[in-house]
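Record 1 of the preview.
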Amino acid sequence: MPATSTRRQAVNLAHKFSLFSEQWSQKIIAEMNDYQFKLARLQGEFIWHTHADTDEAFIVVEGELRIEFRDGEVTLRTGEMYVVPKGREHKPVAEREVKLLLVEPRGTPNTGDQGGARTTPGDVWI
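->
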């Protein structure tokens, strides 16, 4: 459920991660203005995609994530973050499971401009 202005309880990331095990499925844990904070468990390769209208912030809570670009890559380890600029084609890759926090505008599809079977519903709260 979305946070309300009367909520005075911290969001515990470890607890929230314990509530789901599926891979590549984003779960909303909070909203701030028009932005959502989403948790995801990742393992394996995702698809090449672009978000034409928004940047996308990746924050690694646990593990190691490689974000590939057509002209290079960036590797993020536990406690590190990277912002993929809008319009930049990218593909996340995780050799082992990664616990990730994403920050992006409400309604941003995880598959960007590609759509398809790997698109997860955008309104799943935990």
